[in-house]
Amino acid sequence: MVDATSTAPGAALLDVRDLGIAFRTGAGMVQVTRDVTFAIQPGEVVGLVGESGCGKTVTGLALMGLLPKATSRIAGEVLLEGENLIGMSARRLQQRRGAKISMIFQEPMSALDPVFTIGEQIAETLRAHRHVSAREARERGIEALARVGIPEPALRYDAYPHQLSGGMRQRAMIAIAIVCEPRLLIADEPTTALDVTVQAQIVDVLGDLCSRLGMAMLFITHDLGLVAQTCSRLVTMYAGEVIEEGCIDDVLVRPRHPYTSGLLRSLPALAERKSKLPAIPGRVPMRGEMPEGCRFRPRCGFARPPCEAPQPLDRLTSAGQVRCCRHDELELMGVLS
Amino acid sequence: MSVISEGVVRRKRRRSRFVAWLAGDKRAAVSLVFLLALASLSVLANVVAPYSPLEQSMDILAPPSAAHLLGTDDLGRDVFSRLVHGGPMSLYASFLAVSVGVLIGLPFGVLAGYLGGWIDTAVSRVIDTILSCPSIVLAIAVTGALGIGLTNSMIAVGIVFSPGLARLIRVQTMIVKGELYVDAARTFGLSTPRLVFRHILPNAIQPVIVQVTLLLATALLAEASLSFLGLGVQPPHPSWGQMLARAYAYMEIAPEQMYAPGFAILFTALAFNALGESLRSLLDPTRRRSD
């Protein structure tokens, strides 16, 4: 059921502004992400990509309010339908989770409670948000299992997680996440732990759910192939910053940031055949040794002296944004033309 | 981890699973039968015992005979009757001590493990302090403060048990709290109390269940020790520990007096331990699950 009391047309479903996350460690506060800014429109599928350790998962957890309060400090705003989730009381946040915003995780093996059946876990989520009878909860739970493509949902409803295969567990996870029909689903590398054929099925299920329920999705992944296949917009993160955001078709044809261009061209499926696969030299800088100015500068083939100044996130005319002072002059290679 | 083929996934009924477990684990079956027999004997003590446990006669320290199955003690009381009447006392004592231990230990342990921070530090230091006292001395001291008697001495034993249980559940809670399914449940909008009771406690409780069965055996021995020292069951009422203490005084004249209460304590403690051991292997999450 799509909420009719949603935002005015044109307003973003999720608006993340200058999200900065810092963790308290033994050596003091460590800034993990800064100036993370992007928006998700209702029903839109947005890909969030970047190398391991660039802050994708942490951003996802911060959106859900799942970072431990004692050891983390969060700056900026996360507006879900106009309400700021950062600093919201635990009780109100709890009412939003599962009902308006939900999340699925990388490892379906450990994301389901081993001592309860799939059905009990679906019903529990449903009854936390909706006043339904036990019988109705069961019916809707079985319906949710059917919706994510689980065969014989009525039987699987009473199965324990260890009785299901990895792909089935991820489907069950998705069923729990969508049973209250949230407006936004955060999928944190939902297919990483699964083999390729199951991966494709799960991605299909997610895409199908989004179009059928009018649900928006933030698809966190490092697999650009999956993004190209499912998402309408792409957000690229590098070293804790959003460096580029744009419509997927624009980005594939003409990326604006050298890092995005490098990522795209290093994809075997999308790169030119019979040529040496291009790679981005170097690695993501360690926390302590972040370069001044543009963080990608040490690895960037286009670096010039102006890159040593801090880079703002510039709005593009094509409804995107990029964090590179040379984006106007560079003609970067994409993978499509 | 087994992936069950289509159509076989069905929740088996609890009863049939229980029977299957007992059939596959003789040790657990024997322990359980022994404990159930002991429990029914205790309930039916008045019917089963041929004499009153307090009735004295001139026939003192008699060896086992047809009239007195296990002989008589130094006051001419029937040992079998006293053993049967001592059973409920000993079982009551064990369960009381363990219940007190769980009731005190569990909430503190879960609280410390879940909340962490300074609460955890404070609770842990208190636990360490209590654990640093020798347990039997502590039990004697607490009994002294509460007043002598079986109930008070077993509450004292329960208080002695509580820090160990609290520490166990604390660590378990800390482990389970970090599991992905707890975070996942949180993303689905469950409240903190529901998280603790529905997801953390059921996953953390398994070693506590095992520990409880082991503590039942320890409590039985503690009851015997305290009654032996005169702090538990008061004469003339029978308990196994107290019978053992009396028999000990006449060890050189009638050594067979010690066998009845001694073996009763031994077998009951063994049965509790064996049951605990079987439960441990049954509940072990690393064990291959085939059900």
How would you describe this structure to a colleague?
The complex is a heterodimer of chains A (337) and B (291). With 337 residues, chain A is an alpha/beta fold. Chain A contains 10 helices and 12 strands. Chain A has helices at 56-64, 90-96, 118-129, 134-147, 153-156, 166-178, 196-213, 224-230, 248-253, 258-265, and strands at residues 14-25, 28-40, 45-49, 72-80, 83-84, 101-104, 184-188, 216-221, 233-238, 241-247, 314-315, 321-322. In chain A, β4 (72-80) and β5 (83-84) form a beta hairpin. Chain A is globular, with a radius of gyration of 21 Å. The two termini of chain A are 40 Å apart. Chain B has a single domain (26-48, 70-283), classed as MetI-like (MetI-like fold, Orthogonal Bundle), CATH 1.10.3720.10. Helices cover 70% and strands 0% of the residues of chain B. Chain B is built from 12 helices and no strands. Chain B has helices spanning 14-24, 26-43, 45-48, 79-115, 117-131, 135-146, 150-177, 180-187, 192-204, 206-228, 240-249, 259-283. In chain B, α2 (26-43) packs across α4 and α4 (79-115) runs parallel beside α7 (150-177). The chains are: A alpha/beta (337), B mainly alpha (291). The A-B interface holds A 64, 66, 70, 90-91, 94-99, 102-105, 107, 110-117, 121, 124-125, 128-129, 151-152, 155-156, 158-159, 162-165, 173, 176-177, 180 and B 1-4, 6-7, 9-11, 116-117, 179-181, 183-192, 194, 198-199, 202-203, 285, 289.
